[in-house]
Design a protein that fits this description.
Layout: H1 2-26, H2 34-53, H3 59-87, H4 91-139
Helix pairs in contact: 1-2, 1-3, 2-4, 3-4
Length: 140
């Protein structure tokens, strides 16, 4: 599983840098544009698993891939968002507002992020992996 988690980490990092540079900085769009990078990277990683293994992940592998990729994505995404905040001219105000939000709101936000990441990776390693396997079987 280490290979697939590293593969996802590299694809997601590249997607964040490229997509965010284009969508957030150049086009001045909001941070919600990070979600397409997550979805695209999850689908690419799931397709890579199916292409390399020529099968769907087992239920045990699926659990490791979904939650391992979620952890990797949350860590990379958090670092990236922190970097974007530090580039913002109002960084001090943003950090103060985050500090004043309190632990309860921060916990709710983290739970929502975990749920979103889990859902994205579940779709990737369940539905999209089946599509990739069907495509491989049709082309053979």
């Amino acid at each position: 599983m280490k290979h697939y988690l590293l593969y996802f980490a590299s694809v997601y990092s590249i997607a964040l840098v490229l997509l965010t540079t284009i969508l957030i900085i150049a086009l001045n769009l909001s941070g919600i544009t990070l979600l397409p990078a997550l979805i695209a990277s999850a689908f690419i990683a799931a397709g890579h698993f199916v292409k390399r293994e020529k099968r769907l992940p087992t239920p045990e592998e699926k659990v490791q891939l979904i939650w391992g990729s979620s952890a990797v994505a949350i860590i990379i995404g958090s670092l990236f968002v922190f970097f974007l905040v530090m580039l913002n001219p109002d960084a001090e105000q943003i950090l103060q507002a985050a500090d004043q939000a309190g632990i309860g709101l921060s916990a709710v936000i983290m739970l929502c992020l975990i749920a979103i990441h889990g859902a994205v990776f579940h779709v990737a390693y369940h539905w999209y992996a089946k599509r990739c396997l069907n495509r491989i079987n049709i082309s053979d």
